[in-house]
Amino acid sequence: MSVDGEDESMVSAEEDSSEDDLIPIAVPVRTTRATRSRTSAAVTVDKSEGFSSKADAKASAASSKKNARKKVDSSDDSNGEDFQDITGYVSRSKFSHKGRLPQGANKIEFCSRCRARFTVKAGTTPATDNSGIGLLCAACSGGSSDASAAAPKAIKKSSRRKIQKAEVECQVPSLQDLCIQKIAGCIEDVEAFGDISDISMAKICKIICRNRSLNTDTIQLFLDPRHTELSLYDCTDIEAPGLLNIAQFCPKIRSLNLIRCGRILDETINYYTEHLTELCSLNLSGPFMVTDAAFIKLFEKVGEQFRQFCLEHSYRFTFKAVTAVCQSCPQLSRLELGKCTLMDDEWLAPISNLTGLTSLGLSYPKDAGKGLTTEPMVKLLLAVGSGLGSLDLEGCVALEDAVLTEAIRPSCVRLERLNISGCEEFTTEGVAALFTDWKVNRGLSVLNLRKCIMLGDDALNAAIAHSHETLDELDINSLEELTKDALVSLSRCENLTKLDVSWVRAMDDEVLERFVQSNLKLEQVVVWGNHRITECCPTRKGLRVVGREGDYVTLPFRRF
């Protein structure tokens, strides 16, 4: 009896150990009745029939474990909606526009050899490596599959950025540019430029303004009695005496351009009024402390000889000054007022008397809802629109479609440059109505639709159908409603040189490749925020692609 008992205990111990080794215990998230019955049935069959070998036992246990995992995964998938309802979390893709990821869209994969991203077009099957699991890009799949042939491919792929950088660096600058850079770097030690051209002097001025080296002392290098035009791109460090020297040393100036001139005062403007008797064009950016009294005195002095006036970032330019410039300077051909905090509908009435305007800019009024509204703007454009070649309404968020259909379409027949960036109330129907059968206008050369968030495919298709032969620059930044079908139509713009498609989610490698191949004059494409454009998208010589994610993800970081 003891022997039999020992045998039974040994048999039971072997069965327990075999069960522990062969049948794993899984705790599913939600176990159904069918799962429990199948598991129990499998255990009873194993005990009753026995196993011929340990390998058969392991195979049976693995199959039962696989079935249990499949059941658990299906139960987890079925509870996904319940989990979202309980937590209140909804993924961002629920709010994505339909045009971002259409059905059958391309996919981005990583090459198993060179580790570079590449696009797998919809309906195609990419090549695989020797294992049959990893995917290969077009460069790696074109050669032989052995390791010796794959090595050169990988090296060439990984050094793509180095090759592009070498192409840029191989463009040796001219001796003139090298001298200009050297002079700009040692501007504090230069006593005089001597006899150099105006183009070279303008380049030096831009470089030292970028380096914040333009001040009261260095400005003397750019003041010459023979000059009739002067542009200073950063007057932040120029004090009042340096600004007064402009009129003292350059009395024949006809065009004056001062950017970031926050230190200019009424006394300086009055001094210009007395000494710059031939002034015809004035561009000021940031004259915070100049009052309307100084501007009115200047306008009355220059009178009919005044042709261009541009003002930006002014907080003391009032309705009286606008009335003065419109009455005293009736020959104005260019008037641009931007970011003037007091600008409202009242300003538009005197501007409507300037029938000789060829360029008009009214951007970023004081208030989003009360700055410039639709009805006064329609009256203004009907009065002066027949001669306009450039119109800038950037940031006028209160304007509606009537400005496009009732003012620009019938009156602006000579328009070539249109900027409606940030006009959020313009709809797809309004823009499409503007360009559809607009036969009196021969076509736009510059079109800026940036951040017109309500525009869809019909708006872009109508604009391209009207101006595809003349369009030179196009900006459709942040138009998320656009789909891939509308972007494909960009290939019709054969004369396009600059394009901004940043934050247009439907843009991918396939669309950009087709566009690059058909537009041979294209010089720059801006693609910030388009994660579906990879570094594998083919480009060509002379084309600059700005904002590709793959060009910036491998930035070196220093370890501390």
Automatic annotation (TrEMBL):
Assigned GO CC terms: SCF ubiquitin ligase complex
Biased composition (Acidic residues): 1-22
Region: Disordered, residue numbers: 1-83
BP terms from Gene Ontology: SCF-dependent proteasomal ubiquitin-dependent protein catabolic process
SMART domains reported for this sequence: LRR_CC
Name of the protein: RNI-like protein
Compositionally biased spans, kind Low complexity: 26-45, 52-65
Species the sequence originates in: Podila minutissima
Positions in coiled-coil regions: none
